[in-house]
Amino acid sequence: MVRKALETVDRAPARGWVERQKRFYATRTHRHLRYSPGSVYAGHLVQHLMHAAQLPAGSRVLEVGCGAGRFTFDVLQSFDGELVVCDFSETLLDQLNGHLMTFPASQRHRVRIVPGDVYRLESVFGEAQFDAVIGFFFLHHLNDLADALRQLCRLVVPGGQMAFIEPNRRNPLFLLQTLCCPDMSWAEEKGMFVLGRSRIRQAFRSAGMMAPTIRTFGWFPPQILDRWGWAIRVEKRIEQMAFCRGILPFRLIQSRRPAGALGAEAVETGEGMPAGRAAERVVQVGGKAWARHRRSSA
């Protein structure tokens, strides 16, 4: 009883954060977060993340903060395995499900849609069962990054990984976007400006993950890439310029869960990080899942 009471107190700020986030996403249109079929920009970011992840066939992947699926469907088509998508907004998940219905049955059956917030996912999924947990522009919205990563770490099988794409706070265009975009607010986006490398590394290590690698990339916003796809070739040249690397707009953050009893030194340095797929695979998702598409579906 005492333990449950303490957990209730500890989770109170997280619940307040979730409710604020729900209100924020329910009261604005968020046009910049909508799924756009054939988006060069979305596909470009997904390609960077999935190329770094190197997921073998049959992997089980959890995308947190999926929203209405802006990046989800490019992820789905970039690997051969099961994709579980999660968000706290059932309104956004309904939109994602509507988009999913336009895909062939062979791809729909590889997707599971699960509502839930990041601080309670262990109660939804139970023990570790994912080869990878991924997210796009997700971490900087969290009010307690370390706690959220600890929750996610418990869902990753030993040897599995986390990979996230986040905005680079050193790029001045994100500040301009936050101030000028009517669908964004400083209260909800300010996290990107305090999410430095040292804080990221400390949060991952305290969660029990290996010391993360952080790499910047990109240059052009979606308004450019979605209109002139050839700009990607220019972007690659800019990425090679040493004086630009500090302000490239996106950060790819990648870390693995230790495969065994590697000790604190391995978590700190990243030594012993397995190159291949996690050796251990756990059973199917436990608990009740809000899923309309299952492997057994017709």
Based on Cα principal axes, name the global outline: globular
CATH architecture: 3-Layer(aba) Sandwich
Helix content: 25-40%
**Number of strand elements:** 7
What would the CATH topology be? Rossmann fold
CATH class placement: Alpha Beta
Please, could you describe this protein's structure?
With 298 residues, this protein is of the alpha/beta class. It has a single domain, classed as Vaccinia Virus protein VP39 (Rossmann fold). It has 13 helices and seven strands. Strands 3-2-1-4-5-7-6 form a seven-stranded mixed β-sheet, sandwiched between helices. Helix 7 crosses helix 10 (197-206). The longest helix has 25 residues, at 2-26. The chain is globular and about 45 Å long. The model is unreliable at 1-10, 262-266 and 270-298 (pLDDT under 50).
List descriptors.
alpha/beta, disordered N terminus, 298 residues, disordered C terminus, seven-stranded mixed β-sheet, Rossmann fold
Write the layout of secondary structure elements.
Blueprint: H1 2-26, H2 40-53, E1 59-64, H3 72-76, E2 81-87, H4 90-100, H5 105-108, E3 111-115, H6 121-125, E4 130-136, H7 145-153, E5 156-167, H8 172-180, H9 186-189, H10 197-206, E6 213-217, H11 222-225, H12 231-239, E7 250-256, H13 263-269
Parallel strand pairs: 1-2, 1-4, 2-3, 4-5
Antiparallel strand pairs: 5-7, 6-7
